[in-house]
Amino acid sequence: MTRPGPRLTPSGGAAGIVIIHQELALIPELSITENLFLGHEVARVGVMDWVRACVRAQELMDRVGLNERPGTAVKHLGVGRQRLVEIAKAPGKDVRLLILEEPTRGIDVGAKYEIYTLIQQLAAAGKGVILISSELPGLLGLADRIYTLCEGAIK
Predict the structure, then answer these.
(1) pLDDT tens-digit profile, the chain (155 residues)
(2) CA distance to 16, 19, 96, 124, per residue, from 144 (Å)
(3) How many Cβ atoms sit within 10 Å of the Cβ of residue 36?
(4) pTM of the full structure
């Protein structure tokens, strides 16, 4: 009997594969902490444990270099920082492969640098990272391998 291969899931799950799409899956009115744990809240006896949640959120934010307060509403962050919130969800889910679709599209140079640094740190920690990007110059210094697709074929 053969075992099924890993499943691609946006939440990570047992497969350890996390996909972060170009369009962010954040709720702007909620805090960073609430967005990080949405769907798998840190609770005790069925009630949100805000102290534990904020401590854990700060740990995840520190991993990705996001220097904000855990209670900050996501709508008050720039797009680059919002992308870091989205990426911060991944280490909390035992990610083995992180797939990023256009992670630096439409963000400033400083935010791009933060994301590129994070990608290098994940790779150095033995995590697989796949970048889907139309911004080739930024990838040249990051990638071990680069594949280009044109009209659905590898060129």
Answers:
(1) 444 433 334 444 557 888 888 888 899 999 999 999 888 788 788 888 899 999 999 998 988 888 999 999 999 998 888 988 988 887 555 678 888 888 888 788 887 888 888 888 888 888 888 888 888 777 788 888 888 888 888 87
(2) 21, 20, 17, 12
(3) 25
(4) 0.71
At position 102, the amino acid (one-letter code) is E
Three-state secondary structure of 6-33: CCCCCCEHHHCEEEECCCCCCCCCCEHH
CATH code of domain 13-154: 3.40.50.300
- Rounded CA-CA distance 145/55 in Å is 37
In sequence order, which ranges of 28-76 are alpha helices (DSSP H)?
Answer: 32-36, 50-63
